[in-house]
Amino acid sequence: MSSPELNALSATELRRMIGSREISPVELLACCIERIEALDPAVNAIAGKAYARARAEARAAEAAVRSGAPLGRLHGLPIGIKDLQDTAGVLTTHGSPLYRNHVPTQDAAQVALVRRAGAIVTAKTNTPEFGAGANTRNPVWGATGNPFDPARNAGGSSGGSAAALACDMLPLCTGSDTGGSLRIPAAMCGVVGFRPSPGLVPADARILGWTPITVDGPMGRSVADARLLFAAQLGVDSRDPLSRPLDPEVVASGRALDLGRLRVAWTTDFGQCPVSAEIRAVMRRRMGAMRHLFCAADEIAFDFGAADRCFDIVRAQGFLARYKESYDRDPSELGPNIRANYEIGSALSLSDAAWAHAEQTRIFRRFQETFREYDLVLAPTTPVTPFPWTQLYLPELEGEALKNYYHWLALTYFVTLVTNPAIALPCGVDDHAMPFGLQVVGRFGGDVELLDAAEALERAFADIPELRRPLPDAAALANPRPELKSIVTHAPQEIE
To answer: Is residue 462 part of a domain?
Structure first.
């Protein structure tokens, strides 16, 4: 089997082949590294590399297979870890010059879990500075280009992971999500990003541990791959006060689901999110192409109250808690997105915070009423086609100025506020031949049921040309794009 053919296989198939000795972890890792070195210069998805340690771990994984030792769920699978997530002994910069040579001494909780399951940390994946924003660019590693057009952005903040997956560089990658950081890059790059319910994947680094808006989660090229990784990320951890158990065997196995028994609600904008006329039209066409799959598919109205202001406040509190010391010392140490969030937080009162948490509760309760009648909620994941990465964010839409640098992400951060599990599924292309991502939202706490439904949708979409997952043209990614590194100030040392 040639290297490109092996790289294109699903993570679930690669894991099966490792267990049956059809391929070696050493061979698979070599193919992944070859693919990274060949295609990453065109998209700049990869941050720090851990090749030497990964090769040693692949040899050990191969020996374990040969000896008949018990194998973990991810045994021998190379994985990319988002550069916000600490990796012991491997460069972790958070996309910030403050951390350009930072090498943690221990793994983040979910990194430790996936390594315990046998995954081989091969590389870190690019992210905006401290994960702020949905355009993956920072002064340490530069910008990540979209695999379908490297001049456009790959989304964020898990943009490096999404681009690496779309290019078949790695079979699995991790991500995290506050306002849409798992879902948006997955949608823009034509892969799967799953935002689980808070507390299922332990988040030991979350500074406001009782606030559920930020979660870690899986990304893959298919729902089955994402749920394979998700099953390995699960774990109760006393450092995360929201931590709670979910049986990984139930997650990994899933069940067949008949879409014809489901009632779905859908929307183009949740009643108030900024969305381009073009994406509204694409969403309507997609619903027309899939309506026959369901028992019912109704466009309904939603009441998200003052969700924009609510999210501003809830989000800003985290930035205030995390970056006060740096901001007080020298605001110029922080990028513009971080400063903007901090300054929103510093202007808040205790009354503002109390109102926001009460409003989030009201929004949550109204949204859950939808599931008295419907099984899923469908919406676009992003409001526009990917724009050039040189444009930091979207300042206006359809002639209207947006409120701040992340207002264009409202389709995903509205769902963040209600905390229901949500997944971005590839669903054809838009009018610019760029991936269109369908956001599918499940019941409160219904992570397994949502994954089952998403797999059924994915299978159905594969038989409908308008809805099936698009693939980037690898041949078009043969030429390096040095401009993606043009915003790098001082390149970090490659430390493992």
So the answer is: no
